[in-house]
Amino acid sequence: MTPALAEYSDEELQTPAPKTLFGKYELGKLLGYGASAKVYHGWDAVSKQSVAIKSMNKQRIVTGGLATHVKREIAAMRRLNHPNIVRMHEVLANQKKIYFVLEFAEGGDLFSKVAKCRFSEDLSRKYFQQLISAVGYCHSRGVYHRDLKLENLLLDEKWNLKVTDFGLSAVTHRRRSPSASSDGLLHTMCGTPAYVAPEILAKKGYDGAKVDIWACGVILYVLSTGYLPFNDSNVMVMYLKICKGEIRFPKWMSSELKRFLSRLLDTNPQTRITVDEIVKDPWFRIGYSDAELCSDHFEMKDVEEGGWNGGLKSLNAFDIISYSSGYNLSGLFGGRDGAEMFLSTVAPEMIIAKVVVAAEQERLRVAKKKKGWVKVDGGHTRNFTLTLEVKRLTVDIVVVEVRWRECESEPGPEIWKCRLRPHLSGLIYRPDGPVGSD
Q1: What is the average pLDDT value for the chain, to the nearest integer?
Q2: Of 54, 83, 105, which residue constitutes the final position of a domain?
Q3: What residue numbers bound the domain in which 63 lies?
Q4: What does pTM read for this prediction?
């Protein structure tokens, strides 16, 4: 389950938010807060487009054991671009805070809507169709949400559904997911009690796609009835009901919907309905049309690709947040062996020129040089290689990544840190961040 953290204190909540973030976003009222984050309404300073800004204290993340969840959310969101998924525009950070700049869903969450009254079968079907469109897309991209619930389903200004909060997601790669064991199944206990699938409770490993489908079934049941299918004030009793699959359908529910829900809430994951089977189901297909998507929907573009870069590689903010020592995140996510990064406001060509001069002064050889990249080695006498690459982060800021290979007679890190880096000390930019403590 989600690691517990103390809620924000009254003093923290009363501390005024910064008025602007990095000169790019204006902050408005506090929309809500949880154990590890506060969410503000904001605006793009230029376009005035509304955004939601999720603010997280790095120290609170570290002490609360949520670093892995932040990494998961970034890894998941960078893969996803779908009409029914909240879009993450970018990630920003200073020495104290991490900020997710998200698409603003002004309609609120589905939980608050269904809490007032249950939905009609047609309206429930509409939102379930949008949910499955998003979930099926996530699964095709190797992302399993694992915490689908009404509170994580938002509505935009046109009342369309938007899935959010991928902090508990599992992201698979070509290699086996770190969350998976040798049997290829996931074993991490996570999710919200009322929505958790029986196979998670059995602790025998589970398929991420199957548990998402179970949660979708719970969501459809709540939309249609206004209450949970498995509920009890005693959590252990509720878990027992989930494992047994004890569901009671109201008399007024259509037989077609009862049949469909029984397939979604099948306690046996092997026979539980799949996404492919869902979209072919007669009840589901009423009024359904596949989302019209183009290839552009499925690509996460670098900022201003092909614009002000001038041929220089740009570095997506999602990559920066993962490992940038320039933003002092190494204590959160860990550094990289044989590598170091820093930020600079100096022009890339000036950085490369300084490296060339420094290498010559230290009697190292410049083996190769091109735009935004230089390779330095020790010549024939020393087995040492260093590469320095400059990548664009913003119009004014670049990221410099240095990598080295060990030298037999002298440690690689010492050659870089003690002999070359001192020549570049004036280039390093350490953002204080115009953001106050919130």
Answers
A1: 77
A2: 105
A3: 10-105
A4: 0.64
